[in-house]
Amino acid sequence: MRDAAPQLGRGFVLTVEIAVAGTVGASLVGAVGAALRISESRTARFVATAFTEFFRNTPPLVQIYFLFFALPEIPGIGPALRLPSVVAATLGLILHQGAINVEILRAGLGAVPAGQREAGAALGLSRFDQLRYVLVPQAVRISLPALGNNVISLFKNTVLVSSIGVLDLFGVANDVIAQIEVSAELFITVGIVYLACVGLLGALFRALEKRAAIAR
Amino acid sequence: MLTLSHVRKSFGTHAVLKDISLTVEAGSVCCIIGPSGSGKSTVLRCINRLVAIDSGEVVVDGVSVTDPSVKDVDLRRRVGMVFQQFNLFPHMSALDNVTLAPRKVRGLAAGDAEALARRLLAKVGLAEKAASFPAQLSGGQQQRVAIARALAMEPKVMLFDEATSALDPEITGEVLAVMKALAAERTTMVCVTHEMGFAREVADQVIFMDDGVIVEEATPAALFGAPQMERTKAFLSKVL
Amino acid sequence: MNASFESALPALVRGLFTTFGVALAAMVLAVAIGFAAGIVRSLVPRAVDLPILAVIEFARGIPLLVLMYFLFFGLPQLGWRTSSDGAAIAALAIYAGSLGSEIVRGAIASIAAGQREAAAALGFGRLQALRLIVLPQALRRMLPPFVGLFALIVESSTLASLIGVTELLQSIRNNVERDNALSLPLYLTALAAYFAINYPISLASQNLEKRLA
Description:
The structure holds three protein chains of three kinds. Chain B is an alpha/beta fold. In chain B, 38% of the residues lie in helices and 25% in strands.
């Protein structure tokens, strides 16, 4: 099992890369989606709601499979949509956790006192600037615990990428087990690594929440 | 400077403003008094289009509020508003609260905006609190920052919506002092207020509103000294 | 192509039943575990609580898939054989049970301290107070998050396909393997099916939240 360490190390790096890319992507999706969901345009609201409810309520594993296996089969444009497994998997995570972020931020925006929007509007700030400088920063602070949980969920869900052959930490672990009989120990070890990372993320977010409280 | 003509506004079936007409001369102070629910705050919000009126005309500094081709931003650069609940942005320091709109709406450079902000914070007596966050300031201090924030846009008219109602009685003085100083500088002000002393001392005209209409309008001496209408007398006897 | 899609349907329906079977079994166990752990945590002193908390954080912290694989592939190495269904249900139950314990504990804690004080003043023992006064009120607050938990279990049941359980997703994959061209309609069907299951559950949970909170 010691010989497998470099492989496992590379797998871990890939896990972290996917987690970071996924978190950044999901944050963008969340911010844009939440802004659209409270837009004055009915079309924008409808599209954003449909997107959010669909990707929030369907399993990320199925979304990943769809992006990887089904997209290329679309008549006509299919072949152009043949995504590399890493891309398909990360995209699936971004869409699913991003949709969850939209819902979190929407609730957060609703919790910002109405007077804040009034004050921003009275100063002449455009709707976009109101969101950017006044409303979203407060919504994020309010939603920090839920957003943190979502980041942790995304990190744990990176294991799903192994199902389409991506060699993240879990994928490598399975490969190694296929070659040598060390499943119990390896799973426990890998489990501890994930646990440690989750613990770190949790501590990080608790610290952020403390800082956000002072600023409020 | 500011004219409302036959303004009507209903929220659903509830008629909040029923034919309001008033004029405020440049450089003068107009105080609006009356019981809660009389529509006073709605009048203010019609001036800067936070509320859209159903019918009538509102003209501020030559700009028509009801004209759809007039953009919100052009209107709101001319009108500054101070709220009862202060509504300071809690995640920004006092300085950032004041510089935000000048930078984003007026397009000032960061350096110019900061200089302007510091000057205004000094004017309201809070120069040393520039780096403080709203949570670290008392109610009176927060409201003074809010006044500085509104002044930073260099508006032609300042609207005060019960600016001291949410403050402890001992603290209202510091905010009223700032408002009196502004009045002395010939700022055009429209104040919805419960502070009769302030109205008597500073206003050029006092308007008494009740149930969506202007019941009586006169100079402070006339309205407080010799009210004409029964409703005015009844209200004043309760609050004075 | 249409003929193959239709011929796949019986297998998909069987898969759907398996999904529900696994999800329901896991849910029942999760509720049991959640209540047991949640109530115990609400009653015991800190020292006893800490190991329970450790187990719960462990179950919440490792990815569900790792837990499933460990139960199915890892345990046999230590001498314990399990069926794929069994391992899937067990893993889901452990994971959801830890979340459930937090729901129960949180709901109990949210019942104002005043209630507990009043009960104590009237002479109720802690267990009695819990059973007769706090729990009935807490149950109402637990309902929306537990409904949401069921949706989470259904969603997570897809992971069971990776250890060979022939639930809905695996049935789809089996049919896709036979004919690649079917992947688009079949995966769309999968997404639609899971959406049709989880969206109403999610709405019900939000509805309950509004009415009971």
